[in-house]
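Listing S7. Sequence submitted for prediction.
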Amino acid sequence: MELKKMQIKMLSCCFLAGGLTLAGCSTDDSIDVGEVDTTIGVKLNNFTVPLGQAEKITLGDVLDLKDDDCISTTANGDYEFFKQGDAADPAHPQVDIINVSEKTSKDEDPFIGPSEKPAGFDLLPVGTTLTGTAGSISKALNTFNYSAAKPDDVLDLTTAEVEGEATIIVNFNTHLQGFIDKFTSFDIEFPAYMTLEEPTQGTLVGNKLRFGEVATNSTIYSKVKLKSLKFQEIDAANKLVIQNGNITMLGDVKVDVTYPDLVKKNSSSDITKMQINGITSITTVKITSATGKFDPKIDLDDIGDIKINSKDVPDFLDDPQVNITLTDPQITLNINSDVDLDAVVDGTLTSTFNNGTTSEVKISNIEIPRKKNSKILICRQPKNEPYQDYTKVYVVENLSDLMTKIPEKVTFKANARVDKTKAGTIKLGTPYTISTSYSFKAPLSLEAGSTIVYDDKTDGFYEDIDENDIDLRGEAELVITGKVTNNSPLELTLDPTAIDVDGNALKGIKLVSANTIKSNLTDKTPSDLKITLTKDANVNLKDVKFDGIKFKATAVSKDATTLNKDNHYININDLKISVNSEISIDADKKKDDKK
């Protein structure tokens, strides 16, 4: 505690007591004392002076904060540790564009009509309608095999948005034109896993490009864009799958046609050689967006540092004896992710103290929700009320290990990875951003047994000693007593030391504080204050320049209550000082001073 606030100068009280005693003595003014030693000694045995009541000492007086940036007070006066971590570089996960290109392709050029001439066919005259020969076919116009090596960061795909284009060119040989003037319907069907759009000729109905009636003396020419793909296996010839480390796209482009009864238009056309000639070509299919499971690298191994300048640490937390356990330390981790993938972070927080030691706390499986600004709380013990401001709350019971004393630095290392069990949709070739920041906050609520240390002094005694030319002869004992009401959660032990004008400890003057000042938050009985000063016979206060007392106050928390600068205070009542000594005063000096 800051004992200067008590306004006690023990020796000044002693000198005052001695002066009062001398003032009560009778003297004979006719006696000439000019030739004798006029140093007067007054022997005081258990001479006691009541000092009344000391001014109320608040914790704000005791824990006098610097202009620091790690310990501050909240609006209600509670002490709080707060430090924002340094900015960390964001991560940019990305899956590259996949190009699925042609491996093999074959034009089938299907035949239609009978495979053999009907009986008597050659004898039929030109213009004869072959009744009952109308029909339909569904045959492959083209077969293709496309493939691409599967990237390692692609685990599984269900659908894909693509860039690609199919070109269809279809015409009919002269044998077909010799029997059919036009088809009553003409469709070109693509594999069912394809979705198409924007044909230059024909009408799209699902995965079919319909042309209606088509004259056999014309040529079909159309381009159609590939919009999307669905990963599935329809049959052995039509499938889009991932297998053996590759993306494989197999398919048939089919022609579905109907035609009327055949008419023998000339004698040179062969009914068994009616053929549809088709060329279907598909450009390289570029997968630009996909839905599935991915595992891109998240380069987020360093979430940042908290650096604490030792000059900013208040004295009461900077002593080697300090050992604290914070009841409610909290780390707020802000994560902004614009990628449609859930991620997981394993973190390691490490405190480095000024003596070179470290303390480590591990945090596992921190979930990073997709496409969201997340506010994640990491705390030592959760409260009962809901954490409405936070996306996730994680409890780490040993979190207070980071702050057994105020460290020089806290580092937050991480191992971030995508949750491979959950699917998402991402644009390939696009760098996404996952950015993080964090802060450490803890109300200065110390668990029972935590220790803080405060150093202070009350000085300026030598000025009184020198001005009055006063000393204590021989062995001397001064005792300060009082009753202390300690309305704080801290149990105080005082370790006083006599000091000279330079603040150095003095030999031959011993100070002892006999009692511990207990916390009265639960036990309302005041504590006895007793501080005893003893001086060796061969020590003169003036010679050693005795100037005051330095106190080291060790405070041990008895109750887990947040320290408050105004509500926690100390009152000292019934202050008394008792003197067992001979006080000397030089009358010559006093007489000279009057001249």
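Caption to Listing S7: primary sequence and predicted structure tokens for the chain studied. Helices lie at 10-23, 59-62, 174-177, 461-468, 587-594. Residues 1-40 have pLDDT under 50 and may be disordered.
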